[in-house]
Amino acid sequence: MVVKQIIASNADLSTDYQNNTLTITLHSLSAQRFDNAAFELTKILNESKTQFPGTNLKMIFKISAFSNCAR
User: What does DSSP say about strands 21-26 and 11-16: parallel, antiparallel, or unpaired?
Assistant: First the structure.
């Protein structure tokens, strides 16, 4: 269910060419428990240091529900 919501949800993309990053910020999902699960998934994805295909941009994943807190 969480993966379905992530795929169907909106996201903001932001590039930073000076630091070679592409930040993907997922919008809040339908329930806090889904946001929490997505947050844990973003930690795993960020640890993988994946580059966006065809570029040298490292992908950074965030959840908008947690963007203003110290999580």
Answer: antiparallel
